[in-house]
From TrEMBL:
Keywords for the protein's UniProt record, in alphabetical order: Arginine metabolism, NAD, Oxidoreductase
This protein's GO CC annotations: cytoplasmic side of plasma membrane
SUPFAM superfamilies, sorted: ALDH-like
Protein name (Swiss-Prot/TrEMBL): L-glutamate gamma-semialdehyde dehydrogenase
Organism per entry: Sphingomonas adhaesiva
GO molecular function, one term: L-glutamate gamma-semialdehyde dehydrogenase activity
Domain spans labelled Aldehyde dehydrogenase: 6-444
Classification via InterPro entries: Ald_DH/histidinol_DH, Ald_DH_C, Ald_DH_CS_CYS, Ald_DH_CS_GLU, Ald_DH_N, Aldehyde_DH_dom, Proline_metab_enzyme, SuccinylGlu_semiald_DH_AstD
Catalysis: reaction(s): L-glutamate 5-semialdehyde + NAD(+) + H2O = L-glutamate + NADH + 2 H(+)
Length: 479
């Protein structure tokens, strides 16, 4: 049996290890979830809500311990891991509200009785989690799916299995029946077995390439609900404002979480001329001042390592390609002396006038493009197959209105980092950034299907309504 081992990217120490689930293990887990579905979907909504709220209570009790697990397994600074746990807790009440508003019970009186809208769960949902937010992002699928009455088989990222195990344990400590939520640990083979199993839905957060594979894989399985939250080559247009504030906003957009957020800015678009040059220079001056360190360093660092040495090597290869195409490193993509290879320094690459690959570099790498006009800036922003997030920095209301009309993205922010998103709003993108099933507040939409009913206390009035037609038919028969 293959062993699954996760390591801390900051230290190389083993965080978690256990045997990976086999295809037979996955099949058995799905079968147990199928059997558990009958009782869980019949459980009263108030009782499901009580379990979900109890889960939030367990997270609160274990918040410090869970934050440390997230920090060790991802390399994130502890302050950011603590924020992730707080977001997981906040997701519970937001999901309860969303379920009521978007997938609740509606009843309209009619002359014969009532028109009623209900929502029903799909069945067994497979959740594939990412490594960058190993608690928050799968939590955003799991909580609404359980509220709706689905059962779940959850495969965490093979890079962050300890977080997935801790989440599952918290659910069961909250009183959720064991087979309603199960975790299968493993890599690609385990995930493939889960995708091939008799599931009713696949809820996935990850790369656009994997999302494209799932689109093809499920093209002939329309019975399976598919919700994809993918990446982006996100533009940030910085057009006017206080240079110092703009530069800080750019840094927060591009380099937070060591660039490992799907909503991070990947392309900085500035006007050609003095203001654009000043913004680029100010960002370049801030980069060396960003503190980089282990998750438990004191004082706390701004950035930790990338998720793995391999991730750093992949990003370095992508940056080398940009330079080979003619990109000019304003601030090169570097290593951190005395640290493991997963530690990298942020890069700022001038790609003005260069046809750069339309790829997501999942690392602290920002490409600079200069635009001759605001129309050109919007055209550059939209020149991507993705469409997750975009931002505009301006005090000009007219420019903002134009940007709102013409920008192609699911999250469009003004004078705020591209990474800013509210849990009480939908989260998702267009193009290769998703499949038109946004998550966050709108996750309730894909966790249940609507059932519309006409209902009356008895079968009355139908015979009288049919009489004129019966009389006509009898007359025709006699003639």
């Amino acid at each position: 049996m293959t062993a699954l081992v996760s390591t801390c990217p900051a230290t190389g120490e083993t965080v978690w290890s256990a045997p990976a689930a086999t295809a037979a293990d996955v099949t058995a887990a799905v079968a147990r979830a199928r059997a558990a579905f009958r009782d869980w979907r019949a459980t009263a909504l108030d009782d499901r809500i009580a379990v979900v709220r109890a889960y939030a209570g367990v997270l609160k009790e274990r918040s410090d311990a869970l934050a440390r697990v997230i920090a060790r397994e991802t390399g994130k600074p502890l302050w950011e891991s603590a924020q992730e746990v707080a977001t997981m807790i906040g997701k519970v009440e937001l999901s309860i509200t969303a379920q009521a508003e978007r997938a609740g019970h509606r009843e309209t009186p009619m002359p014969f009785g009532a028109s009623i809208l209900r929502h029903r769960p799909h069945g067994v949902m497979a959740v594939l989690g990412p490594y960058n937010f190993p608690g928050h992002l799968p939590n955003g699928h799991i909580v609404p799916a359980l509220l709706a009455g689905n059962t779940i088989v959850f495969k965490p990222s093979e890079l962050t299995p300890a977080v997935g195990a801790a989440m599952c344990d918290a659910w069961h400590a909250a009183g959720l029946p064991d087979d309603v939520l199960q975790v299968v640990q493993g890599g690609r083979e385990t995930g493939a077995a889960l995708v091939d199993a008799a599931i009713d839905g696949l809820l996935f957060t990850g790369s656009a390439a994997t999302g494209a594979h799932f689109r093809r894989r499920f093209a002939e399985r329309p019975d399976v609900i598919l919700a994809l939250e993918l990446g982006g080559n996100n533009p940030l247009v910085a057009w006017d404002g206080d240079v110092r504030e703009v530069a800080a906003l750019v840094v927060q957009s591009a380099y937070v979480t060591t660039g490992q957020r799907c909503s991070c800015a990947r392309r900085l678009i500035v006007p050609a001329g003095a203001f654009g040059d000043a913004v680029v220079e100010a960002v370049a001056a801030l980069i060396p001042r960003l503190t980089i360190g282990r998750w438990d360093d004191s004082p706390a660092p701004y950035m930790g390592p990338l998720i793995s040495d391999q991730a750093a090597a992949t990003a370095r290869g992508q940056v080398d390609r940009l330079v080979a195409l003619g990109g000019r490193p304003i601030v090169p993509f570097g290593t951190v002396e005395g640290r493991r290879p997963a530690f990298v320094t942020p890069a700022l690459i001038d790609m003005t006038g260069i046809d750069a690959p339309d790829d997501e570099i999942f690392a602290p790498v920002l490409q600079v493009h200069r635009a001759a006009s605001f129309d050109d800036a919007i055209a550059l922003a939209n020149a991507t197959r993705f469409g997750l997030s975009a931002g505009l920095v301006t005090a000009d209301d007219a420019l903002w209105q134009q940007f709102l009309v013409e920008a192609r993205a699911g999250i469009v922010n003004r004078n705020r980092p591209t990474t800013g998103a509210a849990g009480a709003q939908p989260f998702g993108g267009i193009g290769d950034s998703g499949n038109h099933r946004p998550s966050a507040f709108y996750a309730a939409d894909y966790c249940a299907y609507p059932m519309a009913s006409f209902e009356a206390g008895g079968a009355t009035g139908q015979w009288d309504a049919l009489q004129p037609h019966l009389a006509l038919a009898e007359g025709l028969a006699r003639s």
